[in-house]
Amino acid sequence: MKRKTPKEILAASFQELAATKSIDKITIQEIVENCGYSPATFYRHFKDKYDLIAWEHARSVAEIVDQVGEDDYPWKQTLYDGARLYFENKDYLTNLLQHTSGHDSFMRYMTEINCAVLEKYILSVNGSQELTHEEMMVVKMYCHGIVGLACEWILGQIDTTIEEIAEVYEQSVPEPLRKYLL
User: Which CATH superfamily does the domain covering 49-181 fall into?
Assistant: First the structure.
């Protein structure tokens, strides 16, 4: 049985509060009181609640991407599981997008995290050779696109299924990345 780390407990506390309260109204004090920790414990692990949000998103995305290559887990399944993750956390993510210090800041976090995870995955596939300048720009462009589309979908601006959005993510993989992802 795996025990939760303090970071995981703090993140769960935050998400529990976010289920009923606007994220911009949640305080560090509320997060720690909700899980029985002190503010000092929070600040040992995170600089602020936005750092916690970014850590949790990075962890969730990495859990999915880390499965690629295991037991014939293809990139297409990664895209589907990412879309499912967003769908299953739609209310929480909507709260993040609508009630953080600007919708753009969370989108920027999501894009940076997705770029870092994608770059790490590509480096593992290509034998840890550095990505070319062009490949890195393409990674950034692809991540901006999928995050923008995901945010519109989460906010209900696009009506589609998990399968359809995952299919669009796959069809949109740029040519220079196809050799690594498909």
Answer: Tetracycline Repressor, domain 2 (1.10.357.10)
CATH 1.10.357.10 domain range(s) in the chain: 49-181
> Which tokens in the block code for residue 88?
């299953």
Largest CA distance in the chain: 50
Contacts of 137 (CB under 8 A, 6+ apart): none
Separation between Cα atoms, residue 114 and residue 160, nearest integer Å: 22
Are the beta carbons of 30 and 14 closer than 8 angstroms? Answer: no
Determine the pLDDT at residue 40: 96
Q: What confidence tens digit (pLDDT) does each residue in 82-121 have? A: 899 989 989 888 888 887 765 567 788 888 888 988 898 8
Full-model pTM: 0.77
What is the DSSP-derived secondary structure letter of residue 71?
A: G
- Cα-based torsion angle of the residue sequence 159, 163, 164, 165 in order, rounded to the nearest 10 degrees: 80
Burial class (CB in 10 A: 0-12, 13-18, 19+), 28: middle
**CA neighbours within 13 Å on the CB side: how many for 99?**
15
For residue range 33-45, what is the model confidence (pLDDT) as tens digits? 999 999 999 999 9
Percent of the chain whose predicted confidence (pLDDT) is above 70: 96
Count Cβ atoms below 10 Å from residue 56 Cβ, excluding itself. Answer: 21
